[in-house]
Amino acid sequence: MAKFSSSAPGSMPYIPADVTNLKAKYRRESRLADTEDTIAYFEEKAKGDADFFFRIRLVDEDHVRNMYWVDGAARRAYKHLRDCILFDVTYLTNMYKMPRAPFIGINNHNQSLQFGCGLVRNEDTDGYTWLFKTFLKCMGGLALMNIITYQDFSMRAGIEEVFPLAVHRHCRCHIIKKAEETLGPFFDDRPELHKTFELCVDHSLTVEEIERSWTAMIETYQVQDNETLTSLWEKRMYWVPAYFMQCFFPFLETTQCSEGFNAVLKWYVSPSNSLLQFAKQYTTLQQKILGSEL
C-alpha cells in the first residue's frame, strides 16, 4: 500500500498550478487524438463512398473551429430536393459544447432528410459564412432556394453573402413564442385583440390583406404604442406567411420539426460525445433515415 508523507503542505513537490497545467496537457492530448481519429474516420468513409465529403477548419492543431461532412447519398438527393432547407443550431451534441448544425431537407414522402452536418464553435458571421460556403462548394455550386432558420443576425449575414438569391425566412413559432413573453399578459386583458391578431396573421392570403387587416387592428384597439407589436410588424416579411406564400416552405412550423428531429437525435448522441463518437452516431442515424425512405 502506498505511504503518504505527513510533512507540511509547504514541503510537497507540486503546487495547485502544476495540477492545473497537467490537466490542461491531458485535455490538449485528448483533443488532438480526437481530431486525428475523426479525420481518419472520415478518410475511411471516403474510401467506400466516392462522393463522401468533409472539411475541418482548425484554429491550431488540436482545436476544431468548424466542421462539415456529408455522405454521397445525401449529396445526390440534394440535387433534386433543394427547394427548402431547415437550418437549426439549437442543440449541443459533444463534449466541446459545439452546436451541431444539420442541413435538413424534405423528400417526396414528407420525410426529413439530412444534407450533411456541421459543427460551429463560434456562432458568429465568420463561422456561419465558412459553413455555408463549404456547403455550397460540396454541392457543386448548386445553391439552396429557400431556407428557414431561427432569428439570428450573424446567421442572416452569412446567408445573404453566400446565398444572395435564396428566400430566407424565420421560424414563426419561435418568434411568436418569444413575443408572447410580453404579449401574453397583454392579450389576456384583451381577448378580442388576441383573436383578431391570430386571424390577421394566420388567415391573410395576400400582402394587401395582411397590411389592411393589421392597420385596422392597430387602429381599432388603439395599440399604436405597443413595442412588441411594432417590432413584430417591422419583421413581418420574415415570419408572416402572406409574404412568402408563393415560395415552398414546408417547415413553416419549424419548432415542431426541429424539436422532433432533436428528439430522435438524442437517442443516438449525448452532450458528452467526442467528435468521433458524434460522427459515428450521425452515420447510424443517417442510415436509419435512408432506410425509412426506402
Description:
The protein has 294 residues and is of the alpha+beta class. The chain folds into two domains: 22-170 and 251-293, no CATH class; 174-243. It is built from eleven helices and eight strands. The chain has helices spanning 16-48, 72-78, 125-138, 153-162, 172-188, 191-203, 207-221, 227-234, 236-239, 254-266, 275-293; strands at residues 53-60, 63-70, 84-87, 91-92, 99-106, 112-120, 146-149, 167-170. Helix 1 (16-48) runs parallel beside helix 11 (275-293). The longest helix has 33 residues, at 16-48. The model is unreliable at 2-6 and 23-29 (pLDDT under 50).
The domain count comes to 2
Class by SSE composition: alpha+beta
Question: Mean pLDDT score, rounded?
Answer: 84
**Envelope shape:** globular
Rg from C-alpha positions?
24 Å
| Main sheet makeup | 8 strands, mixed
Q: SSE order in H/E notation? A: HEEHEEEEHEHEHHHHHHH
Poorly predicted tracts of residues: 2-6, 23-29
Q: How widely separated are the two ends?
A: 61 Å
What percent of residues are in strands?
15-25%
What's the total helix number? 11
- The multimeric state of the shown protein is single chain
The proportion of residues forming helix, as a percent range, comes to 40-55%
Please tally the β strands and state the result: 8
